[in-house]
Protein: NADPH2:quinone reductase
Amino acid sequence: MRAVVYTETGPSSVLRLVERDAPEPGPGEVRVRVVTAGVNPTDWKFRAVMGPTHDEVAPGQDGAGIVDAVGEGVDHLAVGDRVWLYLAQHEKGIGAAAELTVQAADRVVPLPDGASFDLGASLGVPAVTAHRALTSGDVTRLAPGALAGTTVLVAGGAGAVGNAAIQLAVWAGATVVTTVSSPAKAALARAAGAQHVVDYRTEDVVAAVREIAPDGVDLVVEVAPATNIGIDLAVVRNHGTVAYYANDGGDEVTLPVRQAFAKNLRLQGVFLYQVAPPLLRAAAEDVTAAVAAGALRVGDDAGLPLHHFPLAELAAAHDAVEGGTVGKVLVQVTEA
Structure:
């Protein structure tokens, strides 16, 4: 099989295309022929900063493909099933940037009929992160009506996680406000389904959000807490939640303690690699339900433009994500 691997920390040039023997699934595992892999910021950050956790690493936490071998004890998946993957490279050497990958069966999820491999490979990190952020407050599962009567502020609605958060929140019945940095990104956020869009470069975010939600928003899905914590505290309601999943804009947050505890504020970090397995399974089930309902989509009309690269150009795909490409970067690993 072909795979793209690295054996040392460094720039994207450390990635190289190799031929390897096909891995065999053990008990509780399945082997998936990867059709499409998704590239996320975590992939290039691990490659550039963390270095390999095994002798060699084929990166990629997200992918979609077809089950082509099943290990002992797996009874809910069969050869030929179309599936999507999450945390495919976590604690493993071979992730989604390989033609064949062996995965624990609980990280391999049936892909609903009619859903493309592009969509399947775009779920994983963005959608599961968005689900965990949206369920960090008073709601534990997402389904139609689960967020009815609530208002959610999604910071950075044109990003992949922001896009998924908008779509999932709208599907669950929330009123969604999102912040963006340009008219082009505003158009993407509206395509994702956001009912209200605020350009933080040209508008007073606090005033705009307070006009929409005079009593404050119930939940903030935050990508830049170091920059935005003052805004978040000003717009969140009493007993509200700020769920943050990234460190855009800085690594440290200065929190006005009295203002925060006076609102009974909850701060919830979201880091998928440490999320408990039952919560991951709940997210995978709810995300799959949203896909089956047609509520979670990708592409220009869903506010998430797609950018495709062949497997041999994984380095260029990593560079595109590191460079801030707007939309979702995907890698074609094998033919559908």
Summary: Residues 30 and 254 are 46 Å apart (CA to CA).
